[in-house]
Amino acid sequence: MAASDTIPVIEAKGARIPLLGLGTWELRDRLCARVVEQALRLGYRHLDTAEIYENERPVGEGLRASGVKRSEVLVTTKIWPSHFAPRELERAARECLARLRLSEVDLLLLHWPNPQIPLAETLGALEKVKRDGLARHIGVSNFTVAQIEEALKLAREPLVCNQIECHPFLDQSKVIAACRGHGMAVVAYSPPARGSARNDKALARIGAAHGKTAAQVSLRFLVQQHIVVIPRTSKLERLSENAAIFDFALSEAEMAEIASLAHRRGRVVDWAYSGRQAWD
User: What residues are paired with 109 via a beta bridge?
Assistant: First the structure.
């Protein structure tokens, strides 16, 4: 597979983001480095990590071991909310780069909102990190519509994306519409709903009609809406499966049927910070 030849790229506020990336949450040590290396050898050009994942070091190791040029890979990492005070944020960003052994990341995100620290201060620090050359682009993650609106009023630098939980079982239409209205990309984590897609009869039936799996259908449903997906896997064979989603298209009827699976209580991610959010 030459995934890099087939993975489309979307543009948002100057950033070029491959529609398919590798999520690395819960991947550790040598396994993480191996999966990252193999993904890049298969043609992936988008890696997603975070300081809270405690795997930035092996992500960087896998990137270097792959032999792929650094300039060809979009690397995202995220700052944890406890480091949102300005001096803490800059320190955390530099430590992320030290672990990755990179001079800059392509995309640096605020991992979750933190109402304990004024957003204006946090965004100011994030923008300084960008101006200092530590990040090419900046954005947010897990922001609601109201939080997006507040951030955009305060921001002096473009916010290129909002990374959110997004899959066929969760209605994120309001947040997606808000992002699109402001030219921001939507990046979907947990796009197969942590394995729930594989057990869904409707997705399996639709997949069978295309010679695809239910998980592939869940990914295709999102990328067909120009939503970036970053599925995580620890299985090397799944890397190829997750990338084989650009050689078929879902019909309007199939897209509508899949959309009907969504509801407001479809979340599968349960962090302490998620419980504090007033979700749209």
Answer: 78, 139
Grouping H, G, I as helix, E, B as strand and the rest as coil, residue 236 is helix
Contact 170, 263 (CB under 8 A): yes
- Specify the pTM: 0.95
Task: Tell me what percent of the residues of the chain surpass a pLDDT of 70.
Answer: 96
The backbone torsions φ and ψ at residue 41, rounded to the nearest 5 degrees and listed phi first, read: -65, -30
Query: Under 8 Å CB-to-CB from 173, ≥6 apart: which residues?
Result: 262
Q: Where are the domains of the chain?
A: 10-260
Catalytic residues: 53
Residue 256: Cβ within 10 Å count: 10
pLDDT of 3 reads 47
CATH of 10-260, one of 3.10.20.90, 3.20.20.100, 1.20.140.20, 2.40.30.10: 3.20.20.100
Q: How far apart are CA 51 and CA 63, in angstroms?
A: 17
Q: What is the pLDDT of residues 22-48, one digit of tens each?
A: 999 999 999 999 999 999 999 999 999
Decide if pLDDT at 217 tops 90: yes
Do 177 and 149 contact (CB within 8 A), yes or no? no
